[in-house]
Amino acid sequence: MYYVGENDFYIPRDESGGYKDYGSLMESFADSIKTMNGLIPSHVVFNGKVGALTGDSAMTATVGEMVLIVHSQANRDSRPHLIGGHADYAWETGKFNNPPQKDLETWFIRGGSAGSSLYRFQQPGHYAYVNHNLIEAINLGAAAHFHVEGKWNNDLMQQLEKPSNIV
Asked: Which 3-state string (H, E, C) describes 61-81?
């Protein structure tokens, strides 16, 4: 099981666009409130910081393994999406007593709630798990990765060329 906590942060900037630095939390209060009231986050991240679930910290799985992803967002609506896969089952409201939705490409998590999804990885590779507001995923940090190990299944998809770096 993997938990993805999505956070939005509102960090004040100075006149030149740099992030402000304060001597204490109390000194930042007025600027922080003003920034938050603008409702435009400076960062939207998973698990507290940009890159928390990428690179060496990527989530892992093996081909054939079914993973449960629990996704929460305290303040804003979110639309999780697994690039390269679909939610085999999704509980958008997180209530396992309700029947799941099946085969969703993107599912909806209401602000202030948590939802969950189950997915069985069919092929090895690197999968991106993102907030489907791709601007937030790419520019603000709401992205994670799964690194999936295992044998390629040509019955599902013929691999013509082994993956390699883009030159």
From this structure: EECCCEEEEEEEECCCCECEE
Query: What's the pLDDT at 79?
Result: 94
Q: Are residues 15 and 65 in the same domain?
A: no
Q: What is the pLDDT of residue 136?
A: 86
Pull the structure tokens for residue 148. 């999936």
Token pair for residue 31? 């600027």
Same domain for 88 and 23: no
Q: In the chain, at which residue ranges do the beta strands (DSSP E only) sit? A: 2-9, 43-46, 59-62, 66-73, 80-83, 87-91, 101-104, 113-120, 125-131, 143-149
C-alpha distance from residue 144 to each of 17, 36, 60, 64, 141 (Å): 27, 25, 11, 20, 9
Burial of 121 (0-12, 13-18, 19+ CB in 10 A): buried
